[in-house]
From TrEMBL:
PANTHER family tied to this protein: PHOSPHATIDATE CYTIDYLYLTRANSFERASE (PTHR46382)
Protein name: Phosphatidate cytidylyltransferase
Subcellular location: Cell membrane
Family to which this protein belongs: Belongs to the CDS family.
InterPro entries tied to this protein: PC_trans
This protein's record includes keyword NADP: no
Keyword Nucleotidyltransferase belongs to the record: yes
Organism for this UniProt entry: Hallella multisaccharivorax DSM 17128
Class of enzymatic activity (EC top level): transferase
Pathway as given in its UniProt record: Phospholipid metabolism; CDP-diacylglycerol biosynthesis; CDP-diacylglycerol from sn-glycerol 3-phosphate: step 3/3; Lipid metabolism
Catalytic activity as recorded in UniProt: a 1,2-diacyl-sn-glycero-3-phosphate + CTP + H(+) = a CDP-1,2-diacyl-sn-glycerol + diphosphate
GO terms classed as biological process: CDP-diacylglycerol biosynthetic process
């Protein structure tokens, strides 16, 4: 067996296990919260380690940054579930951000401003988007009270991202000629991106059809599902490119090695880091115009 064949087998096994864990994690609200709290922690830990190792004169407080990001996820989850009400649950996170900024006054780092910038980038780029998965998962009624857990909506974000990636790979391999963004990601083509986008939107339409032809229609109708698919395709592609830009800036090929054959946590969740916030904005926009 050649090395290439071995790598393909490892990549396939890792991919199947990854998808299985992700799907299983959405079957239950508590499992989803635990899974994404772990994902948030691992991704922030990986990001902080990359920055500390690759960016000169920058030394992020890895532990505090990771704990702060995980707490943000838990706080948003508890608020979404109505376990806690009001802004008080966010106070520890606000204090953490204040601490991370003030500590630079005393740390005597050679490049304090860059240190603060990279620290806050981790919170904005990783912690905030992953925390917003709770907004997709836990619905509220007209009075703003918790009304139930929706497994389908957050899971579909990842299904559509996977469909987009799969379609883009297949169409790009067969028809790809025109580079999408050669400065950042030389392997991506317009043909692949368009093909992947069409495939993902079709999958969104299929999900919307079955979601609205059961005993109880979903909160999104078929056309709104198609719109969600388009939003996820566009912002998922941008999310992939943003992570590629980050890796090129600090000079690494993969963000890590935690997932054999697939790289690191940032490599696996790069598309979702922009797709999740975009999906939340899309859903709130629909809500506003439907009232």
């Amino acid at each position: 067996m050649t090395e290439k064949q071995k790598n393909l087998i490892v990549r396939t096994i890792t991919g199947v296990l990854f998808v299985a864990i992700m799907v299983a994690g959405f079957l239950n609200a508590s499992a989803m919260m635990l899974l994404f709290a772990i994902i948030t922690g691992l991704t922030l830990w990986e990001y902080s380690g990359l920055v500390n190792d690759r960016v000169a004169n920058v030394n992020i407080n890895r532990f505090i940054s990771t704990v702060g990001g995980v707490y943000l996820f838990i706080a948003v989850a508890l608020w979404s579930l109505d376990v806690v009400r009001g802004f008080a649950v966010m106070m520890p996170y606000v204090l953490t951000i204040i601490y991370l900024l003030i500590s630079e006054l005393y740390a005597k780092n050679r490049d304090a401003v860059n240190n603060m910038a990279y620290t806050m980038l981790g919170q904005m780029y990783i912690a905030m988007p992953l925390a917003l998965i709770n907004v997709l998962a836990f619905h509220r009624d007209a009075n703003g009270d918790f009304s139930g857990y929706d497994m389908l909506l957050p899971l579909s974000v990842f299904i559509l991202l996977w469909a987009n990636d799969t379609g883009a790979y297949c169409f790009g391999s067969l028809f790809g000629k025109h580079k999408l963004f050669p400065r950042i990601s030389p392997g991506k083509t317009w043909e692949g991106s368009i093909g992947g986008g069409i495939f993902a939107v079709v999958i969104a339409g299929v999900i919307g059809y079955f979601a609205n032809n059961g005993a109880e229609p979903h909160s999104l109708n078929e056309w709104q599902w198609l719109g969600l698919g388009a939003v996820i395709v566009i912002f998922g592609t941008w999310g992939d490119l943003v992570e590629s830009l980050f890796k090129r800036t600090i000079g690494v090929k993969d963000s890590g090695k935690i997932l054999p054959g697939h790289g690191g946590m940032m490599d696996r969740f790069d598309s979702s880091l922009l797709a999740i916030p975009a999906a939340v904005i899309y859903l709130y926009t629909i809500t506003i115009f439907m009232q």
